[in-house]
Amino acid sequence: MAAALPRLCALALPFLAVAACLDVPSHGNRMHLPRKPSQELACSGELEKSKCTPKLTNKCGHCKNKLDFGKEFVCCSDCSDPTILIKHSKMGYCKSGAELSMQLKPHKIYHWVAGPWMKCSSPCDGGVRYRDVACYGNLSDATIKHYPVDDASCSADEMPARQEACNEQSCGVDMAEQTNSRKNGMSGWLVALILLLGLGAIGGIVFTSYTYYLRRTSGRSGFVYVMMEAYS
């Protein structure tokens, strides 16, 4: 037993040296933990939590130092850096002492916009005409104009037609109708012209016959009187 004691001391000596080098605090000493700032204590429930709850505003849009939470922005009222401690409730504080604010993002609306129809590709026998159809988005904020987006953002079921058939009437029937209408128009003018010429000729013959009759049945003075009456 006495012979084994030096060996045990030799084995335990390295462990004793390591323990002596370690700075292990005694049970009587207190460990000093870093204290939380007063703002963090407020959000932890030790002070008023209302100071850490963001207030609704519409001024976060122009701040560069804002946090994006998907449907809303969180910022400080003076546009300084906000600090968020509880993410799901967005509770936090502003290091500058400003008020923590939150702004809801404008709601996006997507809709189809169709342009005017272009000229038909054929005057008859069926043609095709086209128009431009694109998907546009706009925000619930009326001050922002709509802007083009990818067509996948709009509903495919509500998409207006980009092309349609046009001028499906037959070219043969159409040409025949046009020819007949032209012929009918020309024949009408010819008939009217012939009637006018005929009436003029009949009137001239009647006048000449009447004048000749008066000349034969009247004297010289009577003939002159009749001629003067005719030309007056």
SSE layout:
Layout: H1 4-21, H2 38-43, E1 55-56, E2 67-68, E3 72-76, E4 82-86, E5 91-94, E6 100-104, E7 108-114, E8 127-130, E9 133-139, E10 147-148, E11 163-166, H3 171-217, H4 220-231
Parallel strand pairs: 1-6
Antiparallel strand pairs: 2-3, 3-6, 4-5, 7-9, 8-11, 9-10
Transmembrane segments: 189-213
Keywords: Membrane, Signal, Transmembrane, Transmembrane helix
Signal peptide: 1-19
What does this structure look like?
The chain is an alpha+beta fold. 36% of the residues lie in helices and 20% in strands. The protein folds into 3 domains: 38-105, no CATH class; 108-166, no CATH class; 182-231. The protein has helices at 4-21, 38-43, 171-217, 220-231, and strands spanning 55-56, 67-68, 72-76, 82-86, 91-94, 100-104, 108-114, 127-130, 133-139, 147-148, 163-166. The N and C termini lie far apart (177 Å). The model is unreliable at 17-35 (pLDDT under 50). The longest helix has 47 residues, at 171-217. Strands 1-6-3-2 form a 4-stranded mixed beta sheet, with no helix packed on it.
